[in-house]
Amino acid sequence: MTSSSSEYARIVDLPAHAGRSVRVRGWVTHVRSSGKVAFVVIRDGSGILQVVLVKSTVSPESWERFGTLTQETSVEIEGEVRLDKRAPGGVELGATSLEVEGPSPGDYPIQPKEHGIDFLLDHRHLWLRSERQRAILRVRAEIEQAIRDFFYERDFTLVDTPILTAAIGERSGLFATEYFDEGNAYLAQTGQLYGEAAAAALGKIYCFGPTFRAEKSKTRRHLTEFWMCEPEVAFNDSNDNMKLQEEFISFIVARVLERKQKELAELERDVSKLETVKAPFPRIDYNDAVKILQSKGSEVKWGDDLGAEDESLLVEGADRPVFIFNYPKEAKAFYMKENPADPRTVLCDDCLAPEGYGEIIGGSQREDDYDRLLERIKEEKLPLDAYGWYLDLRKYGTFVHSGFGLGLERTVAWICGLPHIREASPFPRLMNRLRP
Ligand code: 4AD
Ligand code: MG
């Protein structure tokens, strides 16, 4: 747009350009003027920059354009980078010219005032530009990177599992879609069953992608589309599995603390509650959990799955996540291995986040006995023809193996201290929300 030869720079990189002229592009967040001197604050995704325009030193056209700026106008500004300790980011730009890239009508919907949550979600595409939402997205991206780094450093192979499936993984609701002459295809609720096949090929694998559940629950913890990271390890038993989980979670939290302090501060997260998250985590047998809950006044009975309130009671006072292990068979999925020490239960665990965030991981040792697995598939009235391949894994060289699924958005909600999971996803999918 300008004929100048100054190079473009991102706001975050400006300190290195001190004393030189650069061009910066971004969106206007604030403007104010004293008549002779004007201030424009712009955001470019990398940082926030205060720009100063002095009427007597810019062209009349630039000064006039300044008068048209509204919130979210996109602009290109050329100027000199000046170090200034008081300015956000430690620099200020002394403008020499200002061009408007794209105007923004003065009715930008998101204003610095209280908006209702439905309004904000209807405007999610714009809400993302606000400081708090940007901080959440950055923490989420860091967590995803930490997940990949953790497994890469430990020599796991990433295996991408299908989203269109014939086999059902979990008990919760299914999204079905017609699939040519093959009947119904279901959107994957989990990549696990395919991960088990891959573990027999590669030893240690993980998958990480979107999963879908037609959950009819409107809670602070449920999305209909969420991302799940699912490692699967050949020859790991349930104890090894919990060990991997506590190392994994500790790694993720440490990474966010190391690299995302600014974002956590923006979110007003009490980081002292994250600094204590270090392996090992306490482990409570399901039988003991029921006794603890009853002693705290819960009406839970042996055999029940644990609800959100029970989960909160169990982590009361805990300074790190807590494992509840070996649940009753009826409360859990068909593929979990029967506990040889108590066949009413299965070798599994739920990892509960502290501060009432509830289950962030579900994991288990898998049933590796062909006949018992077949029995469980029949008991659950699952379509046998869709599980032939899964049974094959027990027919050709069956093996002890375990794995787990970490829900990304629940982890983000916990680490960011969000009251509701919907803010943990850039475009959350809820029962009553499919747009934007
Ligand atoms: O406990 P879940 O259902 O376990 C599985 O899907 C296993 N196949 C995992 C495995 O062993 N490979 O789900 C795992 C995690 C939960 O702990 C939770 O964090 C998250 O996935 N999750 C949800 N997150 C958001 N919205 C929902 N509706 C969720 N359902 C599960
Ligand atoms: Mg679960």
Quick tags:
binds magnesium ion; alpha+beta; 30% helix; 17 strands; 436 residues; 25% strand; 13 helices; elongated; eight-stranded mixed β-sheet; BirA Bifunctional Protein, domain 2; single chain
Structural description of this entry:
By secondary structure, this protein is an alpha+beta fold. The protein has 2 domains: 7-102, Beta Barrel (OB fold (Dihydrolipoamide Acetyltransferase, E2P)); 122-424, Bira Bifunctional Protein, Domain 2 (BirA Bifunctional Protein, domain 2). Helices cover 30% and strands 25% of the residues. It contains 13 helices and 17 strands. The strands form 3 sheets. An 8-stranded mixed beta sheet has the order 7-11-12-17-16-15-14-13. The chain has a 5-stranded mixed beta barrel with strand order 2-3-4-6-5. A hairpin with a 4-residue loop joins strand 3 and strand 4. Helix 4 packs across helix 6 (238-259) and helix 4 (131-153) packs across helix 13. The longest helix has 23 residues, at 131-153. The protein is elongated and about 85 Å long. It starts with 6 loop residues before the first strand and ends in a 20-residue tail after the last helix. The relative contact order is 0.11. Bound molecules: 4-amino-1,4-dioxobutan-2-aminium adenosine-5'-monophosphate and magnesium ion.
